[in-house]
Amino acid sequence: MTGGVTGGQDRTRLGYFLGPHGVKGGVKVYVLGDQEQFRALKRVFVEGRGWLRVARLEMLAPGVALHLAGVTSREAAEELRGLNVFAADDELPEPEEGVYYYHELRGLTLHGAGGEVLGEVVDVEDGGHQDLLVVRHEGGESFVPLQAPYVLVNLNDRRRPASLALSADAPAGLLEADAPEVGGDDA
Fold first, then answer.
1. What is the pLDDT of residues 136-174, one digit of tens each?
2. What span, in angstroms and rounded, lies between the C-alpha atoms of 12 and 87?
3. What residues contact residue 79 under an 8 Å CB cut-off, 6+ apart?
4. How far is CA 123 from the centre of its chain?
5. CA–CA distance, 20 with 167 (Å, rounded to integer)
6. Is the peptide bond before 149 cis (omega within 30 degrees of 0)?
7. H or E stretch including 103?
């Protein structure tokens, strides 16, 4: 999952458009994470289109259908197929305890079980059945499964992520130099 900056505002990718929903411009969204994150949004950032107002939201099983201002036909909805959908970080609803947005984890330090600094989280990706931290370390970049009980999230006084640590139970070699590189040709 990638985020970026638009007009000075941090944003987080929520998913991507699958295609039309109905004949009046609804667009189905493949949701990364919890579909509830869409409920309170008044606008979304659409890749290549900018900010669009959410006129209506339909909860689907799974995913959501968005009805966006200016998208009023099936053909207009079809043009959005494959485009990424983002939200402004400060407009996302407060997640329940123990749930974190990807943007909250980017930039955090990853520590070993003994407290030593292992690297920095540069991104988080949706790996399907589990999220993957992309950690930059001395040997390059590696994927680290964001999976309890191997990765512990240390919280600040606002109960939001402050740093991450590998538990003593974490598999050995997660950050070794010969681990598969992120974006490498080893497939």
1. 999 899 999 987 788 999 999 888 899 999 998 888 888
2. 6
3. none
4. 9
5. 44
6. yes
7. helix 102-105
Instruction: Using 70 as the pLDDT threshold, list the residues of the chain that sit under it.
Output: 1-9, 177-187
Beta-bridge partners for 166: 151
Q: Is 72 exposed, middle or buried (0-12, 13-18, 19+ CB in 10 A)?
A: middle
**Cα–Cα distance for residue pair 71/103, rounded to 1 Å:** 28
pLDDT at 110: 95
Identify the pLDDT of residue 1.
33
Residue for token pair 């070699």: 173
Place of tokens 């099983």: 61
List phi, psi (to 5°) of 76: -65, -40
pTM above 0.70, yes or no: no
Torsion of CA 153, 155, 161, 163, to 10 degrees: -60
Helices assigned H by DSSP within 79-153: 102-105
How many whole angstroms separate alpha carbon 78 and alpha carbon 21?
9
- CA 80 and chain centroid, separation: 20
Q: Which residues are CB-contacts of 108 (< 8 A; sequence separation ≥ 6)?
A: 120, 121, 161, 162, 163, 164
